[in-house]
Write a structure and sequence with these properties.
Number of helices: 2
Strand order of the largest sheet: 1-2-3-4
Order of helices and strands: HHEEEE
Radius of gyration: 19 Å
Largest sheet: 4 strands, antiparallel
Number of strands: 4
Shape: extended
Distance between the termini: 60 Å
Strand content: 25-35%
């Protein structure tokens, strides 16, 4: 009986584990308060930008946008990473600069065109 329970438990964990890991940008979700290096934030910003294009929240012209700057700024809840992209091909001139914000520990906070 114990062997049967152990087998069922093992098989269940193998079947349902991939669903728990599913999701776009899942590799950029961090636990704890340990600050992440700038390189990790750059990679996570690239993933987030691609995800925003894929889901239709950003125009496809943003696929070719270049990352201009990354800096650590003072946010409402402490230090935040602020990543800036430029897209001269954007139709709306007021929306040629995209800002993506991450917590100091690397988790996505927001994306906008205001930088606020």
């Amino acid at each position: 009986m114990k062997t049967w329970i152990a087998t069922v438990t093992l098989l269940s964990s193998l079947v349902f584990a991939p669903q728990a890991m599913a999701g776009e940008g899942g590799s950029c979700h961090f636990h704890g308060n340990t600050p992440v290096p700038e390189g990790v934030v750059k990679d996570c910003a690239e993933q987030r930008r691609a995800s925003l294009v894929k889901t239709g929240k950003l125009d496809t012209s943003w696929t070719a946008a270049k990352q201009d700057a990354i800096e650590l700024v003072d946010g409402k809840k402490g230090k935040e990473w602020k990543v800036r992209y430029s897209n001269p091909a954007a139709a709306d001139k007021a929306k040629q600069t995209l800002f993506i914000f991450f917590s100091h520990s690397g988790n996505f906070i927001a994306a906008n065109f205001t930088g606020q």
